[in-house]
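Example (one chain per record):
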Amino acid sequence: MANPIYALILAGGSGERFWPLSRRARPKQLLRLVSKRALLEETVARLEGLVAAERILILTNAEQEAAVGKLLSAFPKENILAEPAKRDTAAAVALGAGWVAARDHAATMIVLPADHVISDRAAFQQSLGLAAQTAEETGELVTIGVKPTWACPGFGYIEQGEPVRLRSGAGKDAIHRVVRFREKPNVDLAESFLRSGNFRWNAGMFVWSVPTVLSEFNRHAPELADFISQLRAPGEFARALRERFSKLPRISFDYAIMEKADRVLVVEASFDWDDIGSWRAVANYFKNDEHGNSANGAVTALDSTNNIVFDQNGTTIALLGVHNLIVVRTADAVLICHRHQAERIKDLVGKLPPELQ
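Predicted structure:
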């Protein structure tokens, strides 16, 4: 690869959907949900061999900065940054682009969420390597698309067009031009996307050269572009972050840049991918009994079906005559809800005492 690769890991977010295991200071990416490592630890480990640790920036927020530092005790401390205020992903990506550009104005940059489940590291690195090669050769914005396995209404979609060939011949049939991005559809529309065969899930992973993304910020988001140029000024990074970040617009990167850019390519993921957005999704990684009860530990069940159980401390949970429940137990709280109400857990969190949020 001609240019060095840098990575920005977006590790902010709130800890609502996985309450009571998650809290505002301990959101999803800091939890050990499907393995012995937290999702953020898995994300960093997945880059080993592709991106050196000193070229990885982890962006979090003030509430979670201490927990991230504790979790990644061996990671370069200066590469963990806390956003001074809550903004959306456009400001976060602008901050990451400024950080990378200040170090190497010709680098290739990867943007990754911190909280996805991907088990095939070799395939992940192969796809990211192809995306980096594509970004360098074409000078276009590149996104990763995941072939849908079902008509999920909870994901954004990418409509892909004609195939694109690299000079080397790499990535045959895996690279396509993006026709447009589609917001989260209703179930009927999602099913039509699936039937058409030319839609991919938007995994929120991006790759580009620094000059390309700076050009797109200049064209479509001049206020963010000005912030980036201030970050790049010698000795001005900390001051620009402190004084300017909280005044930036609250807008998603997809809306600010990706949906407006006219030169975008999608590389199809060759790896497994899961967003695990709720307890129902995490249950796919738990042990199942013959009655559809899923648990991370010991459960005794009688006349009980399709329940999801998570116990932080390994205590046996006993179920009797209950169906379709989610039961989550931590040291200081217990959640019991209907499994079809999982999306509403975030509404419940706001009604809890502040010390439990």
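Caption: The first strand starts at residue 5 and ends at 10.
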